[in-house]
Amino acid sequence: MSNSKITLSEELQRFNPVTVIGAGTIGISWTTLFLAYGLTVRVNDPRPDLKEVVLNGIEQIKPTLKALGLPTENLTDHLEIEPDLERSLQGSAVVQENGPERIEFKQELFSKIEKAVTKETLLLSSTSGIPSSEIAKGMKNPGRLLIGHPFNPPHLVPLVEVVPGEHTEVQAVNDAIAFYKSLGKEPMVLKKEIPGFVANRLQSALFREAIHLVLEEVVSMKDLDRIVTNSIGLRWAVGGPFLTFHLGGGKGGLPAFLKHLGPNLQSGCKNLGNPTLDESTVQKLSNEAMNSYGKVQIEELENKRDQKQISVLHVMNNQH
Ligand SMILES: NC(=O)c1ccc[n+]([C@@H]2O[C@H](COP(=O)([O-])OP(=O)(O)OC[C@H]3O[C@@H](n4cnc5c(N)ncnc54)[C@H](O)[C@@H]3O)[C@@H](O)[C@H]2O)c1
Questions:
Q1: What is the per-residue pLDDT for 303?
Q2: So what's the pLDDT on residue 318?
Q3: Domains of the chain, with CATH numbers?
Q4: Which of 54, 87, 126 gets mutated to test ligand 1 (max ligand atoms within 8 A of its CB)?
Q5: In whole numbers, what is the pLDDT of the chain averaged over residues?
Q6: Is the CB of 25 within 6 Å of ligand 1?
Q7: What is the pTM of this model?
Q8: Which atom of ligand 1 is nearest to the CA of 150?
Q9: Which atom of ligand 1 is nearest the CA belonging to 97?
Q10: 27 lines ligand 1 (CB under 6 A)
Q11: Quick check: 249 and 256 in contact, CB under 8 A?
Q12: What contacts 44, CB < 8 A, 6 or more positions away?
């Protein structure tokens, strides 16, 4: 798609309209992307400043959409602000839920949602880690419910983890894949449900050690970030950990790598840290983060991050 007029593609027609529940960081990002692809979006959230927060959020995202080659004119023509849950769901083809990350909240919400939608409505939750089999516990017919977990911000990062539960019908998985692909995303289906899914579990493993190294004063927070962006960050943008080590094994690939360095890798894992995020640790990390990054406005840091990520994406797309 290039920066022209908003058009609803043929593939997306059966997914129109969409209800976005929860207009926080993730909900607003999804809303803006859906609008740019021509979908009618009903946004539901009980917050009193709903309209204002959604309109401001869309404005802030526009430059990124533009840089991605997506349309930014008349974005709000098909936006509907609907604080009433039931009304926001009437006749919707897709629901993308982005409410608070609390299991009881999501269980109660989806048990209400299923009463207001049709049997065909695709029910997707953005949850960062709650399996849909848990969310489905209050529902009578959870066949169309599954996880569509984006990486922040969803309007920019390609990955969406598609995670069916034990109740999810195959057709719903196929529909979710088709929906996200039609929005230019890279849906990845997990073979099994696991709390935290894949990307966040990987991120947690690395972050745990990063915290340990900073707390042990091996390295400052800012230097640790630079170590990552200048080494594994660069590598992982073009090849994941397995391909990277397959190449680390020379001509013999991963088998040679594991034979040569596997024993060291395993014994090294025993020395990894396992910090506890107690009050004083949180305080210490918060102080260092504010000293390292607090002088620059968050919006400025976000814009810089988005610009750099767009440049990386452009390079990667051109090389496919
Ligand atoms: N922030 C991230 O990096 C990220 C990434 C991927 C997935 N997620 C997931 O997305 C979801 C939303 O996260 P977020 O960061 O946008 O949170 P957020 O706190 O920014 O937004 C949550 C929104 O839900 C609204 N809300 C509260 N009660 C509601 C109700 N009854 N009905 C409808 N809306 C209600 C709140 O008013 C708020 O606007 C969570 O499940 C989270 O795990 C977050």
A1: 87
A2: 78
A3: 13-189 (3.40.50.720), 199-319 (1.10.1040.10)
A4: 126
A5: 95
A6: yes
A7: 0.94
A8: 6
A9: 11
A10: yes
A11: yes
A12: 19, 20, 21, 22, 23, 82, 83, 84, 85, 88, 89
